[in-house]
Amino acid sequence: MTVLEQFQQLEAHASKLIIGQSHLINRMLIALLCDGHILVEGAPGLAKTRAIKVLSDSLEGDFQRLQFTPDLLPADLTGTEIYRPQEGTFEFREGPLFHNLILADEINRAPAKVQSALLEAMEERQITVGNKSYKLADLFMVMATQNPIEQEGTYPLPEAQLDRFLFHIEVGYPTIEDERRILILNREEAKAGTRDAFVPAELLSQASVMDARQQILRLHLADELEQYIVNIVVATRDPGKVDKSLQGQILYGASPRACMGIDRASRARAWLRGCDFVAPEDIQNVAPDVLRHRLVLSFEAEADGISPNSIIEGVLDGVGVP
């Protein structure tokens, strides 16, 4: 079985256990392939935690869930040095970040100093305790969640940290048909008595993930499409040039990380579809999730109830497709 077939099999397996969230599953796999992190926003009970758990159960690696609370400390994530009086020395005790897959549940409930510790891990792939830095695993992915309903007692993520996430994914309610399928699946799991019955017989190895990442980098991307990606990102900084109705709606557009994110994500999507080249539809498909959290709207736009999604849609319509 090829590496591509292994990933397609994993996507099909996850779709059976996470009903009605095919977009989330696809984006999780793309983030894994792109060595990126994802921010998921949705109401409680929409399988956000279950999604990352199913991925970890199907992958050769370990998983850690972190419930972010206002009293959380950076050491609760990174670990701390323990004094050994017998030897008169300090021993470093690793924290939860020394795992492969991390679920940062309700990330906006923790104060800035905790978020900064996670930020270093996400960007530098290391954590620093005292005057010493410790490298994290090569396979390291953070899935953070936010509850859009409750905002009281939260600490909004600064733009600098939001920019470190490859995707910002909005999760909605399932359809009526999917809701019934969820009921049936829940009964089957209850009858089985254990989730081990739903774990695939063969786990996806970390070596396969690294191999897939190299294959994606070798995927063909035409020069015209490369320029198309740049044009989309540049248009977010002054959207009035591509659509006059968008004039003055954005204070700050997407950073160069958005270019790199769309490039890698569109390659990964094309690869998952079994293509050996990137098409314009791949770029248009991933662009909203890459750009959504990187736009700072003007006061006028927020007052008028304009969302980043509508602005991104206008930018994509205004930028010419090669």
Write up what this structure looks like:
- This protein folds into two domains: 3-191, Rossmann fold, CATH 3.40.50.300; 219-318, Magnesium chelatase subunit I, C-Terminal domain (Helicase, Ruva Protein, domain 3, Orthogonal Bundle), CATH 1.10.8.80.
- The chain contains 13 helices and eleven strands.
- The longest helix has 17 residues, at 176-192.
- Helices cover 45% and strands 15% of the residues.
- The strands form four sheets. It has a five-stranded parallel sheet with strand order 2-5-8-1-9.
- It starts with a helix and ends with a helix.
- α11 packs antiparallel against α13.
- It is an alpha/beta fold and 322 residues long.
- The chain has helices at residues 3-17, 22-34, 48-57, 75-78, 112-124, 159-162, 176-192, 206-217, 223-235, 256-272, 280-291, 299-303, 308-318, and strands spanning 38-41, 63-67, 79-84, 89-94, 101-105, 126-129, 132-135, 141-146, 167-170, 250-252, 296-297.
- A hairpin with a 4-residue loop joins β3 and β4.
- The chain is globular.
- The model has no long low-confidence stretch (mean pLDDT 90).
In what range is the share of β-strand residues? 15-25%
Q: Quick check: average pLDDT?
A: 90
H and E order: HHEHEHEEEHEEEHEHHHEHHEHH
> In whole angstroms, how far apart are the ends?
36 Å
Task: Work out the number of β strands.
Answer: 11
Oligomer: single chain
Structural classification: alpha/beta
**CATH C-level category of the largest domain:** Alpha Beta
Helix fraction by DSSP (H/I, runs of at least 4) = 40-55%
Morphology? globular
Q: What do we call the CATH topology of the largest domain?
A: Rossmann fold
Low-confidence residue ranges: none
Can you name the CATH architecture of the largest domain? 3-Layer(aba) Sandwich
Largest sheet: 5 strands, parallel
**What's the CATH H-level superfamily name of the largest domain?**
P-loop containing nucleotide triphosphate hydrolases
Radius of gyration: 21 Å
Count every helix, treating DSSP H or I runs of 4 or more residues as helices. Answer: 13
Strand order of the largest sheet: 2-5-8-1-9
Tally of domains: 2
